[in-house]
Amino acid sequence: MARELGLSELHTHASRTARPVFERFGFEVRRANDQNWIRGENLPNYDMRRTLDLAG
Q1: Pairwise CA distance, residues 26 & 38, whole Å
Q2: How far is CA 48 from the centre of its chain?
Q3: Which of 11, 15, 28, 55 is most buried, judged by most C-beta within 10 A?
Q4: Tens digit of pLDDT per residue, the chain (56 long)?
Q5: Measured distance CA(31)–CA(24) in Å, rounded
Q6: Adjacent-strand bridge partners of 47
Q7: pLDDT score recorded for residue 8
Q8: In Å, what is the CA distance from 11 to each residue of 1, 27, 39, 40?
Q9: Helix (H) or strand (E) run with residue 45 in it
């Protein structure tokens, strides 16, 4: 669907647990967010990106 819409990249903020799943689908870590505080808890996550080949 992303290719049909003409998107060239996908982005996500993945948790430590989800990171390996996104990596299996071709996402790469762009930046680690070590200080990500949510409701008083530090929950590190990762900015991830996958570049799409528009040809399919």
Answers
A1: 27
A2: 3
A3: 15
A4: 888 888 999 999 999 999 999 999 999 999 999 887 888 988 889 999 999 987 65
A5: 17
A6: 13, 31
A7: 92
A8: 15, 8, 24, 26
A9: strand 45-51
pLDDT confidence of residue 56? 57
The partner residues of 13 in beta bridges, in order of sequence, read 47
Cα separation, 8 vs 17, whole angstroms: 26
Residue 53 in tokens: 């080949």
Structure tokens at 40: 């008083």
What six digits make up the tokens of 36? 């990500």
**pTM of this prediction?**
0.79
- Please name which of 51, 43, 56, 5 lies closest in space to residue 25, comparing C-alpha atoms: 51
